[in-house]
Amino acid sequence: DQHDWMTPRRGDWIARLEDVILGSDGPVVLVAHSLGCILTAAWAQVSRSTTRVQGALLVAPGDPERDELRGVLPSWAPIVRDRLPFPSLLLGSHDDPYCSLAKAQSLADAWGSRFIDCGLCGHINAESGLGDWPDGLALLRELTDPKDI
Questions:
Q1: Residue-wise over 54-68: b if at least 16 C-beta within 10 A, else e?
Q2: What pLDDT digit, counting tens, does each position of 83-125 carry?
Q3: Which DSSP letter does residue 23 get?
């Protein structure tokens, strides 16, 4: 949970993620959607707790560098492009209105994530009609068994 969903600030979100990870017992698997993917990379750049993360499932990253989003999300650009220090899968869609497939692929490359092309799934959310999304659950399970990544 974040304290302000309507005016998200990267620094605040990083601090909250750090608190949650430090407060958890055992290894952590991150599941991030949209701006949460950008948060994961920004947090990993500054945190000393990254060894607690077993892996990350990064679904439909948002693109706060797009002209129409820069004014709404000023603290989120530029996107951190450092390689993530833990295994990760990044899922992108051909028709995501918030991030082009090419941008999603370039983020996967920068972060060292395995890229998964989800086809025409929009922003890969409830509106995408995926239901319980068994394929997503299978990908999440891969992160709990790192030999599969």
A1: bbbbbbbbbbbeeee
A2: 999 999 999 999 999 999 999 999 999 999 999 998 898 888 7
A3: T
- For tokens 């990267």, what's the residue? 10
Amino acid, single-letter form, for residue 60: A
CA nearest 16: which of 55, 34, 51, 42?
A: 42
Structure tokens at 74: 């000023």
Please list, residue by residue across 134-145, b when 16 or more beta carbons sit within 10 angstroms of its beta carbon and e when fewer do.
eebeebbebbee
Contact 123, 96 (CB under 8 A): yes
Pairwise CA distance, residues 129 & 122, whole Å: 9
Q: Which residues, including other chains, have CB under 8 Å from residue 4's CB and lie 6 or more apart?
A: 12
What is the C-alpha to C-alpha distance for residues 79 and 60, in angstroms, rounded to an integer?
14
Q: Whats the size of the chain, residue-wise?
A: 149
The two structure tokens encoding residue 32: 């991030």
Quote the CA–CA distance of 37 and 109 in Å, as a whole number.
14
Query: In the block, which residue shows the tokens 């947090």?
Result: 43
Question: Cis omega before residue 78 (within 30°)?
Answer: yes
Per-chain mean pLDDT for the chain:
90
